[in-house]
């Protein structure tokens, strides 16, 4: 894995509170007859993307995989696991679940709940609970790595990875993006940020980065310009990234997200060309 990811321990608590989704309206002139609410809402709704649409979600998965795994083949990452020396223990699976931040524990617990019998990862639950919040391998080691590889041959485990990725990262960030009136690009920028920084409200989490951006620019739902807001969001995120040596390379923002923004590709339409850590990628 090329990228070393920051993730708040608030991940273990699923700590992202979503906005209600209220969309801003334009005030009617004082002497004009009141227009129906739909007349005000239609332009804003039309401008908002839907990254959860299957074709767009596929693009989002490939874009993140290019930064997290130096590949576009995100489906090949279910069995991935290693310690990338980022003080978060083991990193594994399609979104980089980690043993030190709680989401790997949650994944294995969900897997054990769904498949309580003949589950090769279930015996490691006590060890995962003990190492949560630390980089320790105690009770895990090569036996755990081997069991992870074996579990990756089980469709039930793959499905649990998909479900947790969506419930903890993809759906919350996309829903927040929709509430903020963002395009597919904006929703993706939220998703990529929550993958690296984790949910929560601390300054170095997704919620904290969003709050910092909103101090400098209004979201489209607040009547702001999307490009101006996304530039502010990118700047706030890069400030946090540069606080850690592992994240000092901000090319996943500069040479992908901001490139698409400057091209005006708010819809993330193909072909897409970008670079991450100097490597070139293309989705045709």
From TrEMBL:
Signal peptide: 1-28
PROSITE patterns cross-referenced by the UniProt entry: CHITOSANASE_46_80
Localization per record: Secreted
InterPro entries, per the entry: Glyco_hydro_46 (IPR000400), Glyco_hydro_46_N (IPR023099), Lysozyme-like_dom_sf (IPR023346)
MF terms (GO), sorted A to Z: chitosanase activity
Family: Belongs to the glycosyl hydrolase 46 family.
Protein name: Chitosanase
Species of the source: Arthrobacter russicus
